[in-house]
Amino acid sequence: MDIIKGSSRILGAEISTDIHCSSKYLPGKDASYIATVAFEQVAPGFAKSFNKGDVIVAGKNFGINSSREQAVHVMHRMGVAAIIAPSFGRQFYRNAINNGMPVIECDISGIAAGDELEIDLVAGRVAVPSKNMALAVPPLPGAVRALLESGGLIPFLQKHPDWNLGAEAA
Fold first, then answer.
1. For residue range 120-153, what is the model confidence (pLDDT) as tens digits?
2. Domain range list for the chain
3. Torsion over CA of 146, 151, 154 and 155, rounded to 10 degrees?
4. What angle do CA 22, 19, 98 make, to 5 degrees?
5. pTM
6. Do 84 and 7 meet the contact criterion of CB atoms below 8 Å apart?
7. 3-state SS assignment for residue 61
8. CB–CB of 44/91 below 8 Å?
9. Cβ neighbour number for residue 93 with a 10 Å cutoff
10. Geometric angle at alpha carbon 140, from 137 and 146, rounded to 5°
């Protein structure tokens, strides 16, 4: 998972996934259904035209005020490969990593809908090859990449029951 390739799908700034991807707003509906209507209020038809492996490219503060992990589960159901934004809501950012969703903080200037992206999590690079554009971003730490490769925090801990955070931090 060190290199992610996908087509860019654009969303605006200040997107609260609590509103657009949470089962809280659709009582009795599951993540599979919500994935078919996610982001409908801000981008009509977004989920219906989304293809597995696409990358969400959003404005600043994506996931702001979001404390619900269901938002990440819904985006996994949609097939989101990664999310790029200049900034994220802190709770959403952590929920995304804990649930195996790559999130990259990056200047999105110059990225347009449909651009084919290449994201290198190790080197810290977001590229749009057709535009000869490469943006440097902070590489994700090895521990974060290990969580993402395992599918999130719980699968990581299941695979590594003897892992010791104290020893890793020392």
1. 999 999 999 999 999 999 888 988 999 999 999 9
2. 3-169
3. -90
4. 50
5. 0.91
6. no
7. coil
8. no
9. 19
10. 160
Structure tokens at 156: 């990581």
Distance, CA of 51 to CA of 161 (rounded, Å): 35
CA atoms within a 13 Å half-sphere pointing along the CA-CB vector of 108? 24
d(Cα 79, Cα 72) in Å, to the nearest integer? 11
Average pLDDT on 36-42 reads 92
Dihedral sign (CA 117, 86, 146, 154): negative
Structure tokens at 82: 């990664």
Q: Contact 52/79 with Cβ under 8 angstroms?
A: yes
Contact 103, 4 (CB under 8 A): no
Element (H, E) at 73: helix 70-78
Contacts of 5 (CB under 8 A, 6+ apart): 53, 81, 116, 117, 118, 119
Cα 146–chain centre separation: 16
The second-level CATH assignment, the architecture, of 3-169 is: Alpha-Beta Barrel (3.20)
Backbone angles phi, psi at 109, to 5 degrees: -55, 130
